[in-house]
């Protein structure tokens, strides 16, 4: 017999599980971008932030910049980070992002092209 009490018992753990899954395993690319990448690359991908300007990040709304970038290079840069003469310019994200999240972020960057 399903009373209100019973159904609460069954749905609460599954609701919590869904929340945990949504927040800790696969955040959407737009969310990862805003929390992890935007401080340097800018919310719109232009790189016009204080750190972005200092590090001279590329403008991802520029079609020429986009055309010069290969998907594999972007995945590699995000996974392994970017160094310049041994100096870290961007850290590696493979520890905190899954391969799928990184591929999604690359697709997200592609959408900045105007
Ligand atoms: C501390 C600042 C900083 C943060 C945070 C950062 N980046 Fe970068 N990123 C750089 C710099 C500096 C470069 C090298 C200059 C360039 O290519 O624009 C770079 C390069 C890249 C490249 C390679 C472009 C190429 O030329 O091959 C990609 C792709 C990229 N970043 C994606 C991301 C993603 C995705 C995130 C978030 C998960 C992120 N970045 C977070 C600073 C940052």
Description of the molecule:
The protein is mostly helical and 114 residues long. It is built from 6 helices and 2 strands; from the N terminus they run αααααββα. It has helices at residues 4-24, 29-41, 50-55, 63-68, 71-80, 99-110; strands spanning 82-84, 87-90. The protein has a two-stranded antiparallel sheet. A hairpin with a 2-residue loop joins β1 (82-84) and β2 (87-90). The chain is elongated and about 55 Å long. The mean pLDDT is 88. Residues 32, 36-37, 39-41, 51, 55, 57-58, 69, 73-74, 77-78, 82, 89-90, 93, 105 line the site of heme C. Heme C binds at residues 32, 36-37, 39-41, 51, 55, 57-58, 69, 73-74, 77-78, 82, 89-90, 93, 105.
Short description:
With 114 residues, the chain is mainly alpha-helical. Helices cover 60% and strands 6% of the residues.
What characterizes the major β-sheet? 2 strands, antiparallel
- Extended strand count: 2
Category by helix and strand content: mainly alpha
Count of helix runs: 6
The CATH first-level class comes to Mainly Alpha
CATH 4th-level superfamily: Cytochrome c-like domain
Please indicate the percent range of residues in DSSP E strands (runs of 2 or more). 5-15%
CATH topology: Cytochrome Bc1 Complex, Chain D, domain 2
